[in-house]
Amino acid sequence: MDDVRDTLNEREEAQLDEHRPPPAKVVHAAVSEHGDEELDRPTSSLFWSAIAAGIAIMASVSVSGALHSFLPDAPWREAVVALGYPIGFLIVVLGRMQLFTEQTVVAILPLAREFTARNLGRVARLWALVFTGNLIGTAAVAALAAYGHVQSDEMLAGMVAVSAKLQERGAFETMMQAIPAGFIIAAVAWVRSAESQAAFPIVFALTLAIALGGFTHVIAGAAEAFLLLWTGHADLGWTFGTFVLPALVGNIIGGTGLFAVLAHAQVSQEI
């Protein structure tokens, strides 16, 4: 590298530094710092932000349902419908709301860096607040969609049709398909720290991959599951036993057990 720099003038060296991607340990430090900030936020801030995220994620179901209602029954319809899935995530992630597996995974890096009872308690507090708030938000907004006549009957039918695909899977299949989704959503926080100027395409591309792959995110899926519950297409046992809990376990395995641990392991000897 020194030989290469010898051929450059001062302005060109500055351009070289500007275009170099940050080292992995710098990205790790940025995500860890973000995690520390989230762990220190007041309880009320985390909780209300999580409720807001649960409400906002319904946009993914709404737009997907609208696309489903507008399009003819054709082999390519599901691929086009998938374009609606990133919308809720864009609102939540770019709005810095608390979404389980996106914001909560960043808290694991401070814990991995310094595994103490205090940090473990801080992580447990964050996870409990965010997951509970997300579920409250999704349950409330799904009830509004089901009973509040906030969209046309055709659009609601499209939303229900999109959501009903969750019922094609059993609990084990839901858990396994939630593992890649957890990994991908966790990657959003990491990649955004490395490429902070490209947040929109990063979030759009990664969440679109979840939809196209048929993977399962527990909170986006909870909005669909609660919609099925409130419209009479599912019962409480299926909502929590067959969907929410298996999806939660899969997302934790993918987002925390795989991504966060591997992200820390790759720089653990450098920090």
Automatic annotation (TrEMBL):
<feature type="compositionally biased region" description="Basic and acidic residues">
    <location>
        <begin position="1"/>
        <end position="21"/>
    </location>
</feature>
<feature type="transmembrane region" description="Helical">
    <location>
        <begin position="46"/>
        <end position="67"/>
    </location>
</feature>
<feature type="transmembrane region" description="Helical">
    <location>
        <begin position="124"/>
        <end position="150"/>
    </location>
</feature>
<feature type="transmembrane region" description="Helical">
    <location>
        <begin position="243"/>
        <end position="265"/>
    </location>
</feature>
<dbReference type="Pfam" id="PF01226">
    <property type="entry name" value="Form_Nir_trans"/>
</dbReference>
<feature type="transmembrane region" description="Helical">
    <location>
        <begin position="198"/>
        <end position="223"/>
    </location>
</feature>
<protein>
    <submittedName>
        <fullName>Formate/nitrite transporter family protein</fullName>
    </submittedName>
</protein>
<keyword id="KW-0812">Transmembrane</keyword>
<dbReference type="InterPro" id="IPR000292">
    <property type="entry name" value="For/NO2_transpt"/>
</dbReference>
<keyword id="KW-1133">Transmembrane helix</keyword>
<keyword id="KW-0472">Membrane</keyword>
<feature type="region of interest" description="Disordered">
    <location>
        <begin position="1"/>
        <end position="23"/>
    </location>
</feature>
<dbReference type="InterPro" id="IPR023271">
    <property type="entry name" value="Aquaporin-like"/>
</dbReference>
<feature type="transmembrane region" description="Helical">
    <location>
        <begin position="170"/>
        <end position="191"/>
    </location>
</feature>
